[in-house]
Write a structure and sequence with these properties.
Length: 149
């Protein structure tokens, strides 16, 4: 009994998936969403674009979370200590609301810190999955690119 299995090698393999689809995750790890945007716009290969879209969605989600967390925390800050040791009233919000913004901002900053750590883990997992031909969607990312393209 003979078995007839075909394996994809060499150039045939690169027709299905490209090196750019693997490297976009590592590029985005170094450049944030900027590198993923460049690859997404410049590539015409479907596998590369799918991986770039996934990386871009994650990095944009982390960026938006970081901006919102920082803005919320700063709005909730009620005093600031200057270099000479004096404190200065800084609050832009009324008394009970500034405390709520400060606490929510702190929680969001912790979530942003965790997401920055997960960025390293997810980029390595996504690059590994791309090597084996899967365009892995980062967990928890919002599909911003798919919604507007």
């Amino acid at each position: 009994m003979t078995s007839t299995t075909t394996s994809t090698t060499g150039p045939e393999l690169l027709e299905e998936r490209s090196v750019g689809g693997v490297l976009v995750h590592l590029l985005a790890l170094l450049t944030g969403f900027v590198g993923a945007v460049i690859v997404f716009v410049a590539s015409s290969h479907e596998f590369t674009r799918a991986n770039a879209r996934n990386a871009l969605n994650w990095h944009l989600s982390v960026f938006v979370l970081t901006v919102v967390a920082t803005a919320t925390f700063v709005l909730g800050a009620d005093t600031m200590t200057l270099a000479d040791g004096t404190t200065r009233q800084l609050s832009l919000l009324p008394a009970p609301l500034d405390a709520v913004f400060g606490v929510v901002g702190m929680i969001l900053l912790v979530a942003a810190g965790i997401s920055w750590f997960l960025t390293f883990v997810f980029a390595l997992v996504a690059a590994g999955k791309a090597v084996f031909g899967t365009a892995w969607r980062y967990p928890g990312s919002v599909d911003l690119v798919g919604r507007y393209t």
